[in-house]
Specification:
Blueprint: H1 6-109, H2 135-155
Helix pairs in contact: 1-2
């Protein structure tokens, strides 16, 4: 059964190995084709990624510019608000001094004022005569009332 010459057995073995090699080469060729196709897809993906990265960089630069502008605007507004607050504080102090002076004047003339609003004594019209109406103190009370109204509007 094994009477075949040795050279024929070797040649048969080489032929089988060549068939296996050809099959493996065909398998490698199909894998290389898929790899090349995937390479083209990968290149397209990389190009899209580069485009998206450039767009994101431009957007980030725009956000930085906007942030810097907002910071500058906010700083200006805070400075203006501080100035307005300082002005209001000065005005309130001055108004408080004026109210104290008015209170002292009213106290010197005999008119009573409570801490929040001037109290004006109402007298029925029949009892009002030229002797009972004190014109300077009435003017002081009216001025104090007007000033207090202004202060309340400024405070709110």
């Amino acid at each position: 059964m094994f009477n075949l010459p040795l050279s024929l057995v070797i040649e048969a073995l080489v032929a089988v190995l060549l068939i296996i090699t050809i099959g493996y080469c065909m398998l490698l060729n199909s894998r290389l084709k898929r790899l090349r196709a995937d390479e083209e897809g990968l290149r397209a993906t990389i190009a899209e990624l580069l485009t998206a990265t450039e767009i994101a960089e431009r957007a980030i630069q725009g956000l930085r510019t906007t942030s810097a502008q907002c910071d500058q605007t906010l700083g200006q507004r805070l400075h203006e608000a501080s100035q307005v607050s300082d002005n209001l504080s000065v005005n309130l102090s001055a108004a408080g001094a004026v109210i104290e002076r008015i209170g002292k004047l009213a106290g010197a003339t005999g008119v009573s004022m409570n801490a929040h609003a001037p109290a004006i004594k109402t007298v029925p019209e029949q009892e009002v005569s030229a002797a009972t109406v004190d014109t300077p103190s009435r003017r002081l009370d009216d001025a104090a009332r007007a000033l207090q109204g202004r202060l309340e509007r400024m405070a709110s």
